[in-house]
Design brief:
By secondary structure, the chain is α/β, with parallel strands linked by helices. Helix content is about 25%, strand content about 25%. The strands form 5 sheets. The chain has a 7-stranded parallel beta sheet with strand order 3-4-5-6-7-8-9. The relative contact order is 0.15.
Length: about 375
């Protein structure tokens, strides 16, 4: 695929390393900063990002699934790798690939302890307590049972206990501190066990929440962990796509599927190589914007599978883009959070939807 016919996705590994180092600097020296790199490092490419983070001193890595963990083990033979989605039926694969399951229920604990007994050795694990999410993790009833039967964990080597903030991106939300207190009430009955609670946003709320291990994700990739303030992280993503055709339309003409936009005056349009097959959401039709140089290009009509129509009304006629000039999607004029806001979603979805068509370049 030629550079002219495809978008160009530029991923700044140096910025990701700088973001890791900055997040690590916010915690006490006794607190270790891990890295969440699930979903192909949030869409940025685990094969490139994981070694860069390891070089930046990350030693603990979190992925979602067993398959992700097995793939990451090939990339990072020395790292500690944790599987967030629990203990899968392929129990032997954890030990065979030196992977550590996050145990989210008593049945997870039972499954992993079974393999520990079969292998006649203690197997590493993390115990996850649900303190608000009602997603994964031991619920209150299971936590009570475990608290009164510590010997259930005897066949295991517990690396740490963890929970997960539900609303740490909402500054001042009382549930943040309430979750911390609930988690503290759980882990204090277990002596000499490390603990982990903070995701990206949690790191910025209170240093007492950092405990022994923090687990940033989106902030590593330049997403804003503090939506109420300017983004403290370095941008790590640039995405540009080629213009394909420049054309003039007349007043009262329409564009796109369903003819959802009618022009109030004669204007020029740029059709660009971008669509929902590239991870650009249909919700941005008649709402989002791209950029040519520093000129804002409002999107007109619906987003198509492979194409977007942009209005050149803000561009001087003598400065219109030409076919195969590159149009900014994410960059200095529009961050991943800006694009997410216009799409009525979050930066996680923007990043993880980035499609395979783009020509990827990594900056080291």
């Amino acid at each position: 695929m030629s550079a002219q016919s495809s978008g160009h996705l530029q991923i700044n590994l140096k910025a990701i390393q700088e973001n890791y180092s900055y997040l690590d600097s916010l915690s006490a020296p006794s607190c270790e900063t891990a890295a969440a790199i699930k979903a192909d490092a949030y869409g940025t490419g685990i094969a490139q990002v994981a070694p860069a983070l390891f070089e930046a001193s990350a030693r603990r890595f979190f992925v979602a699934t067993l398959d992700e963990g097995i793939a990451l083990r090939e990339i990072l033979p020395e790292a500690k790798i944790y599987i967030l989605n629990g203990f899968a039926p392929e129990g032997d694969e954890y030990s065979a690939n030196n992977l550590i399951p996050v145990l989210n229920s008593l049945s997870d604990i039972a499954g992993h302890t079974h393999y520990a007994r079969v292998k006649e050795k203690k197997l590493p694990a993390v115990i996850h307590f649900d303190t608000a999410m009602n997603r994964l993790g031991l619920n209150d009833e299971e936590t009570f049972i475990l608290d009164h039967n510590h010997d259930m964990l005897d066949p295991l080597e517990i690396d740490f206990f963890m929970s997960h903030f539900a609303s740490s991106d909402e500054a001042g939300n009382p549930s943040i501190h309430n979750q911390f207190l609930k988690f503290k009430g759980i882990y204090h009955t277990f002596l000499d066990t490390k603990t982990s609670l903070c995701n990206s946003s949690g790191i910025f709320r209170d240093i007492s929440y950092h405990l022994d291990i923090t687990r940033p994700g989106i902030a590593l990739y330049g997403g804003n962990p503090t939506p109420e303030t300017d983004n403290p992280m370095s941008p790590a993503i640039n995405l540009s796509v080629p213009a394909l055709q420049i054309k003039n339309v007349k007043k009262n003409e329409t564009c796109g599927y369903g003819e959802t936009y009618c022009f109030e005056k004669n204007t020029a349009l740029a059709t660009v190589s971008l669509g929902y097959a590239d991870g650009f959401f249909r919700s941005l039709g008649n709402k989002g914007k791209l950029y040519w140089k520093n000129y804002e290009l409002p999107i007109r009509g619906r987003v198509s599978m492979d194409l977007v129509i942009c209005d050149l009304e803000n561009v001087p006629e003598n400065d219109y883009p030409k076919p195969y000039d590159m149009i900014e999607v994410i960059g200095k004029n529009q961050s991943i959070d800006d694009l997410a806001r216009d799409a009525e979603t979050i930066s996680y979805e923007i990043l993880t939807a980035l499609g395979p068509r783009y020509k990827r370049t990594y900056i080291i």
